[in-house]
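RNA polymerase sigma factor RpoH (Rehaibacterium terrae), 291 aa
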Amino acid sequence: MTETVLNTALVANNLPIPSALGSLDAYISAVNRIPVLSAEEEQRLARRYRDEEDLDAAKQLVLSHLRFVVHVARGYQGYGLGMGDLIQEGNIGLMKAVKRFDPDQGVRLVSFAVHWIRAEMHEFILRNWRIVKIATTKAQRKLFFNLRRAKTRLGWMNAEEVSAVARDLNVSEREVLEMESRLSGRDIGFDAPVDESDDAPPAPVAYLEDHSADPSLAYERDSEEEHQLELLRDGLAELDARSRDIIRRRWLDDGHKATLQELAEEYGVSAERIRQIEANALKKMRALFVA
């Protein structure tokens, strides 16, 4: 299902679209009236969609879980973004979850879908919270969302609070301080305003120095990145097929990263055995980078 299909389904079921002006309260009230599926109904619909590609079954699965998307979206209201936009993004995550849901895994759709719903909302928040991206790596994203919840008061954290947050999130104190600085900052335009007078101070762009202008430095960076990629390819080639598959699905695949338990069930071993294989494979690959 696409967002357009979902919106069509909402209209067909007399439900307003959450982003429509003035319809958010009506939308929330309407989705709360949609009956919750029993475990048996959910399994039946999920199998119909998986085995027969029945879009009506997928629509029912999505509609019955729209209230859960609203519940998750309420937890992100403190980021200054529209509730309707958050719900729309969460609905996209819900549709992705329905598409990938396997009813034979023995879990309810809501437990599986929460990851996809939050992932879409997180991506939307990070894209729109500031003009300049505040978190680009996985570690920075984790810090961004957890640090906002961890701060107990306004203003800068003291040393004890910084240490506590770093310990709880398993990151360095330097990373905590850097993210706190980003959270406390604001966007500043580099270019001068159109109506700026001659007496105004120079815009920030006037002070910027382009350190990447040296072609030799750019070539050196590109060469180093290519070297690292070559080492990664060599490291994967040295592994046996099972180890290579585990590393690829745990670390390199885009989107859903396989869990230890998922791989354990697939290979017929314990999750601890998968962890050991993963650790040994990473050790072998790491040796190439430090050689």
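The mean pLDDT is 75. Residues 132-187 form one domain. ok done for today
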